Amino acid sequence: MKKIALNILVLTATLLLTLAVVEVALRWLMPVDYRPPASELPNVARDIIYQKSSVPGLDYELVPNMDTTAHGARVKINSAGMRDDEPDPALPKIVVLGDSFSFGFQLEQDESFPARLDAALDTADVLNLAVAGYAMKDYVAVLKNKGLAWQPEVIIVGYVLNDPETEAIQQIPAYFRQADWWQYSHVLRLFAQGYKRAKMLIKGGGNYYRYLHADPTSWQSVVTGFEQIRQMAAENDSRVIVVLFPDLWHNWDSYPYAAIHRQVAGQAAANGFEVIDLRDAFSAYPPAELRVSGSDAHPNALANQIAADEILKRLNP
């Protein structure tokens, strides 16, 4: 019996020593960049324009009353924490929910589609509540705790193909969300990365966007999110328009995510939302002419103008 106990002790000690050696080797020779804790993340303007949020369901938000340079452009944040001018109390409101695509990543203040929409409308005040790194669950929290206070006549949801994310994958959300204990170990992050890749392969054929829209947990965040937005809109008598952004890394004749667009549009329509699929209007231009740069597929000023024009057509038929 003592021999068995000794063998178990030796085996356990050997295993722990091996894991410790592998951990040190990974840290020094091949760091695992999957889901690192905040202490290992580079600064991505988080200390300039973002702060931890006290709003239920939100990890972070924009810092009010900032006027600085971040994400490659001037960012002016009003007293309500929006990248926008101060709201006009005399005008009815249109609120925009979204992530960096609606925020206007690497664009000047007046180049984002919410700003262009606001400039084109004399009879409404467009409020840009979008924040880089947000996903569907965040849109719901923003609408509930911030957007509804403005009693919007129209709610615009800028939908991007990574909106079903529920994990803090992107750097800004990862910085502000409390890390799980396993994220401090490179060995455990390596195992977690392998598990995630296996799930992506099984459910999405190895493609991240297909995985997000096939995985029950991530897709359910969209289903539930749309339902919650519908309920809030109904209580406020608001009109909801979902603006669906395509991925700009692919040519239109071989665009791989048409089925995802149909899936999202169908779910939006099932909730009574109007849908604007920007792939239709964007297809008049090569995708490279719509990207903010050769290495970044965020929509540029031209793409944002097209988006604003398409929304205006829907608002003023």
Record the SSE blueprint.
Layout: H1 2-29, H2 46-49, E1 50-52, E2 60-62, E3 67-70, E4 73-76, E5 93-97, H3 100-103, H4 113-120, E6 125-128, H5 136-145, E7 154-159, H6 171-176, H7 186-204, H8 208-214, H9 216-236, E8 239-244, H10 258-270, E9 274-277, H11 278-282, E10 291-293, E11 296-299, H12 301-315
Parallel strand pairs: 5-6, 5-7, 7-8, 8-9
Antiparallel strand pairs: 1-2, 3-4, 10-11
Helix pairs in contact: 4-12, 5-9, 7-8
Structure description:
- Helix 4 (113-120) crosses helix 12.
- The chain has helices at 2-29, 46-49, 100-103, 113-120, 136-145, 171-176, 186-204, 208-214, 216-236, 258-270, 278-282, 301-315; strands at residues 50-52, 60-62, 67-70, 73-76, 93-97, 125-128, 154-159, 239-244, 274-277, 291-293, 296-299.
- The longest helix has 28 residues, at 2-29.
- The strands form four sheets. The protein has a five-stranded parallel sheet with strand order 6-5-7-8-9, with helices on both faces. Strands 1-2 form a two-stranded antiparallel ribbon. The chain has a two-stranded antiparallel sheet with strand order 3-4.
- The protein folds into two domains: 1-30; 38-315, 3-Layer(aba) Sandwich (Rossmann fold), CATH 3.40.50.1110.
- With 317 residues, the protein is an alpha/beta fold.
